[in-house]
Amino acid sequence: MARNPRFDVLFEPVRIGPVVAPNRFYAVPHASGMTNTLPRMRAGFRATKAEGGWGVVCTGYVSVHPTADDSPLPYATLWDDNDIRSHALMTDAVHAQGSLAGIELWHGGGSVSNKTSRFPPLSPSGISWMATHVGFMGHQRSKAMDAADIRNLLRWQAEAARKARTAGFDIIYVYAGMGYLPYEFLLPEWNRRSDAYGGSIANRVRIVRELLQVTRDAVGDTCAVALRISLEELRGRRSEHAASEAHEVVELLADVPDLWDVKLDSSPTDCAPSRFTPEASHEPVIDFVKRITRKPVVGVGRFTSPDTMVSQIRRGVLDLIGAARPSIADPFLPRKIAEGREQDIRECIGCNICISSWHDGVPVRCTQNPTVAEEWRRGWHPERFNAAGSESSVLVVGGGPAGLECALTLARRGYRVSLAEAADQFGGRLRFETQLPGLATWGRVLDWRLGQLQRLANVTLYAGNQLSVEDILGLEHQRVVIATGARWTRMLYSTLELPVGDLEAPGVYTPDDIARGVQLQGPVVVFDFDNYYMGSALAEHLSRSVDGVTYVTPAGHVSAWAIMSNEQPQVHRALASSGVKVQTLSRVVRMDEGEVVLADLFTGAERRLQCQSLVIVGARLARDDLYQALQARGADFTAAGIISVDRVGDALAPGAIAHAVHSGHRYARELDGASGSELYRRDVPITDEAPLLYDDRLARRTI
Ligand code: ADP
Ligand code: SF4
Predict the structure, then answer these.
(1) CA-to-CA distance for 219 and 117, rounded, in angstroms?
(2) pLDDT at 689
(3) Choice from 54, 353, 434, 445 to test ligand 2 binding pocket (greatest atom count within 8 A of CB)
């Protein structure tokens, strides 16, 4: 199909200093969890974006020196020749697709603890970032930088820039965002210096200017020099000379970088979850930059709609459409627009499972894109599929995320597929969960898959079909995949975190009961030790129809795990504004005549709350009765011509939606031994001793 001319503007080339981006699609720097220890996986991940049409593809944050050591978070390094080789895998792979490669050089300043390198962290005035997330906390405070430290910082940046050029990068960043070192210089609360680097804004901006200058001196004849800067806090500050301190900073540096990459200041606002924040949320902070500089501006905002992208360009907000999450969820987003297939875009749902992977220190995972980080190690391409390994037809039972993904991938491989769903509509858990406050966007998991399935001739969809063992034996399929999901239980746990059995009492419910439409009597207690979204979203949901909702958790926070997905701060705010009372560090012990008995997690002291309805949001168990019943009829299913019966998704092992999608996808990719093994290729760091190559062109590279 031809491209819609309305979107032509997105495919215009953009000059960035000495280089030219082939189009306006810009995959911005974002952590992928794949550091220099997984260089081939990382190269495969980034190369796939380039293949999918992103004109510029950037690395995540790359430390310029061991004084910037973010461990245990997964950060990349550019300290030595092996690091150069490691990054060159990516630049070669990106260039092979005709795209530019960008590198975000980074110094973490007083926001890192140098847990591995053991160097004192550096900061403008010895003031360190105080993390509220245990994973980020440390006990090492920073050293106030002296003049020699400043000279060193400039030297490290210049050396890293030269290494980056050797590694083949086209765009080289100075990173003054997110609480990292150059950003710390910008804010007087961090920067109390009385020398030329502190005091007035012109002085506070000096280090950024000098970093840009040394980068340009080092490589600016061949590489573009980009500035990435966080403007949220500065935009809220009054300035004597400009509309805000953000305006003043941009005015002072207006044409110094070749490219402005503008963003917000903290991960939960910059990479905001869709549960609370819509597309294009950065605009009110960064909309002014283009009016001040003549250089191109890139910014993000979870853009998935080409019309929104065009609007950003036409209204003069951005020159380049930046994306981290949309480029993870669909690396082929630009190409789909180019080919007039925008309805095929697999839109990011804004769940932030991807960012949780970085917080977990593991390769990026994505709810929408199960192939992410699997490109090299499992050989999974997001758009190309290994051909079916047999003539088998496959029956998938259960049309939730796992069944939908499994059926779609099988069909794309060429199998004949039937997908049966008991309910009148597909979607599984999404049918209810997308009705909860803020979760409508997650419906894209269903909508995209169903839309794709409906267009395939080798798929038959049966909604409203609850299949029994007899039904399955009667249908003529060689392969059966059970994707019947999971159920919530009434199971409780002891203080020692040991399971203590189900709480059987009147007025005790699970989320499944609410999903079935059971009306609760108030007051309601939601007891959450699942710790993700369900408990808090249900509490918020119930507060709209019932008087008196209390959220109780043994954790220290509401939705404790949601710190990983950047949702937690806003979850707390949402419950507060819904009038939901919160009781942390408490366990439910029993129900007792219109009251629930809680025990303090540490002292065991008991406390009673009025409660007519208790909703336990805790353990989930596989809903695998159908699978077990089929197993019990092994001889019959062989006689019926069935070669295999397997489980995927929550019916196999309950998890988040991302786990179910990956599980369904893996079954489909591996059916008939297509992958040959359950294992995957293991990546290893590049070292002088063992230069194992991603691509043999690297062997010819001289450093
Ligand atoms: P997952 O996350 O693993 O995809 P879900 O719970 O979201 O699991 O979806 C499971 C789906 O399976 C539900 O929509 C449920 O209605 C459906 N299902 C369960 N049992 C049967 C059955 N016997 N026949 C057809 N569909 C079933
Ligand atoms: Fe988007 Fe969620 Fe995938 Fe992240 S994990 S890219 S937020 S769909």
Answers:
(1) 28
(2) 57
(3) 353
Question: Active site residue: 75, 173, 175, 180, which one?
Answer: 180
**The two three-digit tokens of residue 552, written as one number:** 């109780």
The answer, yes or no, to whether any atom of ligand 2 lies below 6 A from the CB of 441, is no
- Computed over every residue of the chain, the mean pLDDT equals 95
Ligand 2 mean position, distance from CA 302 (Å): 10
180 is catalytic: yes
424: Cβ–Cβ under 8 A, 6 or more apart, which residues? 463, 464
Q: Residues with beta carbon inside 6 Å of ligand 1?
A: 397-403, 420-423, 428-429, 466-467, 483-486, 626, 649-651, 660
Query: Strands 491-493 and 499-502, how do they pair?
Result: antiparallel
β 56-63/171-176 pair status: unpaired
User: Which amino acid would we find at residue 306?
Assistant: P
Q: State how far Cα 68 lies from the chain centre.
A: 23
Instruction: Tell whether ligand 2 has an atom less than 6 A from the beta carbon of residue 534.
Output: no
Q: Tell which residue, 433, 432, 421, 434, has the closest CA to residue 483.
A: 421
**Residue 132 pLDDT class (50, 70, 90 cuts):** confident
Judged by DSSP in three states, 242 sits in: coil
Q: Is the pLDDT of residue 691 over 50?
A: no
Q: What pTM did the predictor assign? A: 0.96
Single out the residue of 101, 104, 107, 106 nearest to residue 43, CA to CA.
101
State the DSSP code for 423.
S
Give the model's confidence band at 438: pLDDT under 50 very low, under 70 low, under 90 confident, else very high. very high
**Tens-digit pLDDT profile for residues 404-415:** 999 999 999 999
Choose which residue among 356, 360, 364, 367 to substitute to test ligand 2 binding: the one with the highest number of ligand atoms within 8 A of its C-beta.
Answer: 367
pLDDT of 382: 98
Residue type, 442: W
pLDDT tens track for 321-360:
999 999 999 999 999 999 999 999 999 999 999 999 999 9
